[in-house]
Each structure stands twice: as C-alpha cells, then as structure tokens.
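Appendix C reproduces, verbatim, an entry submitted by the partner laboratory led by Prof. M.T., so that reviewers can inspect both the input and the predicted structure.
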Amino acid sequence: MAKIENYKYSIGEAFRDCFYIVPDYQREYVWTDKEVQKLLDDINEQSDAGNSLEYFIGMVLVSPADQKNHYEIIDGQQRLTTFFLLLCALKQLFQGEPQVQVLSGLITTSYADSEGNTRTSLKLEPRYENAGEVVRKLVELDADPQIVRAGIQAAGIGTFGSLENLVNAYTTIHRYLKDNYDDAVKLRKYWGYLANNVVFIQISTDVSSALKIFETINERGVGLNPMDLLKNLLFTRVKLEQFTQLKDEWKKITKPLEKAKEKPLRFLRYFLMANYVINNKRSDAVVREDEIYDWFIDKQNVPLCEYKIKPFEFVRKIIRNVEHYVAFTEGFGNDGKQNLSMDNLKRLCGGAFSLHYVLLLAASSFPKTLFDYFVSQLESFLFYYIFSKTPTKDLERNFSVWADELRDIGESSDPAVQRDKLNIFVAERFQKNMTDKAPELTDALKRYTLYTMQQYRTRYLLAKLTQFVDMAYKGLKTPGSLNDYMVLEIEHILPDTPENILRTAFTEANPNFSYDDYKIKLGNLTLLEKPINIVAGNDFFVAKKVEYRNCKYYLTSSIAEITTVGQNTSINRINQRLQAFDDWSAASIDKRQELLISLSRDIWKTTPMLTD
C-alpha cells in the first residue's frame, strides 16, 4: 500500500512549506464571484467570533511531485487557488508595510533543484491553458485589479473562461478587502487570523492512491459529526424493534437538508438557539458547531430536550424545524407557501447571512399575519446591520436571547396579547438598535459603490428604491413582488466603459475627482430596461437623457425629467424628493447619492402592527 501522510496546516504554514501545482488534467478554475464571496464572508464571520477560534476549511488531497515539497493538487484546487489570490491581494494592499516580506515568501520562493541550480517558482502554479501566464503576470504587476487586467491584456495574454475567472476572483477579493478592512489595523488583524487560524488537513500520497481516496471520500463521506452522534444517541434510547422507524424518521431530517444543500451542523446550531434557553460558561447564549453534541448530553440540557423519555417526539420537533428552515431558505412563509416578505428577506440576506433563521424558527409558530409582519420588520432591521457591515458576533448573542422572547410571544393563546407583545419587541429590539445604528448606516451608504457588497445586494437596494418611488408615483400603499425590478439592468449613468473623449471631458470638468471612482458610486447607478440600456450605450449624459425619458420606472426617468400632475397629488409629493439633472458631474452624482439615502430611510423602517 502506498504511504499516506496527513498534516494539519494553517494557510500561512501551507504556503510557506509547500509548492502547489494544478496539473493540466485537473478541472480549471471555475469559481465565480458567488463562491469567492461566500468563502470570504465565512472567514470574516468566523474571525469576528474571536481570534482564538480556528476556521476549518476541510481537506486538501495532494500527490508529491518530482521536486522536493512540490505537490500536485488532486482535490481542493479551487480553495487553494482562491487563497493564493487572496495572498496576492493582501500583499498589494500592504504596500510599504513589513507584512509584504512575509507575504512575498508565501507567493513566490527561490529553491535549489536536484542539480543545485537556484530556481524561482510560484507557490501555486496552474498548468492548464495559459493560466500560469495569467497568474505570473498578476504576481509580477502587484497592482490593483484595473492595472492587473490592463497589464494582462497589454501582454497579449488572452483571458476567457477559467482565465477570466482568475482575474475576476482577484478583483472580487481585492475590493472585498478594501471595503471591509479599510485601515491598516483591521487589515493586519485579518491577515493574522488568515495566516494562523484558517486551517485544513492535507493528505499526501501517490497519484493513483490519491485518486482512489478522492473517489472513496466522494462516495461515502467521512467522519462522524454532531448530527451523526446525535442520531446514535437517540438510537440508544429506543428499543431494537423501533430502529427501522427511527431510521425512517431521521431521513426526514437529513434528506431535506441534503436536497436544499444546507449544512446540517448550521441547522442544528440554529435549532438549539431558536428552541431552548442557552446557558454556557461564556454567558453569551451561543452554541458553536463544535459544542453541539456536548450541549445535548449536558445533564442540565437533557431535561429540556426530553429525548431520553420521548425520543420520537424530539425527532419530530427537529423535523418540523427542518421543514420550516428549508422553506425559509427558499423564500416561503411559515405556512410553506410563497411569501412576499420572506422573498424580500431572501434577496437581502442571500447566501452570505443566515443567522436570522434563529429568529424565524423561534417565530415559526406565529399566526401567518403576525409572522409576515414580523418578517417585514426583520428585513428593515437586517438592512441596517448588513449594509453597515456589522460583525455577526454583535448579533449572535442578541438573536439567541431574542429567540426566547419570540417563543414566549408564540406561546400566548390571545391574538391581541401576541400583537401587543410583538409591537413591544419590535420597538425595543429592532427600532432602538436601528436608531443607534443609523449614523453608521448613513456613513456606509455615502461611501457605497457597485463593489461595496455582493451584486445581488446592490440589485436588491436599487430594486427597493425603484419600487418605492413607483409606489409613491402611483399612490400605492402595499408593495408587490420585486421580480420585475430584479431583472432590470444596472445602468452606469456615467458609462462603465467610456470612450476616451467622454472620460477626458469628465476629467477636465471635474479635475479633483477620479472618473473610475465616480462611475461605480451608488449615485451613478440606476435600473433600466435592457432594450433602453442597449440604445443608451456609453454616450454622453445629454444623449442618454433622451432614452431615460422612455424608461417606465420613475426613479430613472425622473433623472431626465420631472413629471408634474395636478396639485397635491402623489406624483407631486414624490417629486419633492427627486431631482432632474441638466448635466452629470461629480456634484450631480453626490447629490443623487444623498437623494437615494434619504429615500432609504422611509423604506427600511419599523411600523407598529395595528388592530384590524
């Protein structure tokens, strides 16, 4: 049998000690903005929880190459390539700082080959297509994404498919770091956590054995996690003749989670915080993934769950929570049906934020009307926290404690009492926190650009703003679905790819402002139907205004022309908050950004639930 070795590496240790090769027979780099963003968000969330905690990213399977410490990647190249690009982005952002020397050694290193010759090699080298050229050029340029992209094009290196994915990933990472770690102290803290606390297991063996291991792991899965241990614990509480029944019931937990591609351990963690009062030595009311099983077997918690005396009732409780959990992830309400409020919440949270499921599970027993109202208020609350980029740890303890309060509301049998208690909850828990968070949110929105957050959130932001203005224009009180708005194109009023004459004209008229900075500002973005967007193209604003007038969405058409109808009409009332522009300068973009921020205050707000 081939020798099999395994090591636990941190990211810093792995790229210090190893050279990684992506062989040409392996899948190319296929990660998009979604996967890269998810990895970055996961690390960010975990680092927020505390610098002493490790973040385990799984297993990497490699096979030793001919040169010492060189390894061909069999499984894990998407993650390792992304981390390599992350190191490159960090090095560029640390320019002039002592961290550059360490990062340089993790990106490229000189070594002696078997003949004693000195060679310099990238610490990660993709060998498919022209990927190696792209990565080497990226490392050589050591610059921001725009310069890197231009430099690769100037070198005549074609970028398409997986090669474009590499450049896009570097762009996403670079912008993420600039937006989330905007001073040297924050960036150093992030780098320290990444280098030392983000870890993986590296299994090393010959190619044929590695491929066999890869096949076996993907067929069978590995290890016992807390979900498996809980299942085994429950089997000890039932009679032998009940094993089949318990096994069938357990599938109602695992199968829906697998089908929805939801992490079982994340569900279990949220299930506990949503359904039980959490006491621990930290006094933070939080259960972490590595604490789940210990929580279940703690003698103080066993009576709460009652799985020893009522194992099937306990399993059915989990099943009900799984059904709600999966429905919530799909944008359905607590009745399992399409739900407008939940759909909006899903668009806001996406795949990057999930902690709100603690509150939704705790409120899942509410009557439908009460639940829908709660979700609409939760959307406003989360908008403040997500768009101000508040660390998850600031919410985690609160959500666990608030879940206890929501369960208390749900247990009341009097609808009027439920409503009154929920109004108090929203005022005390949501509105007070939103008031405290308002200055921070305003500051974040003043600096908001196309790349501040994931594009689906920018699209959500623009869709809600556009819908709000349309409702005011038409005198409507109840919002409908965002579907029609989410399919619109994000238009750069100041063109994203301008002709040189337009860029020059803007620069001359606005000598103290960067064209590239202003073209991505929120104030320069609007939603537009695709046919109109195509016609508007990259033209000057005076020409674009003609096309904007044809847009059926008033937030966009009002940029070109304000429509006045009658006196004290809904149209004229919203007109007081909008503005048409004669030209499109840096001042115009700043003015419109302020206008959109003002509108946002009336969109994302809490309101008491009134009696029928």
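The chain has 29 helices and ten strands. Additional entries are available on request from the coordinating office.
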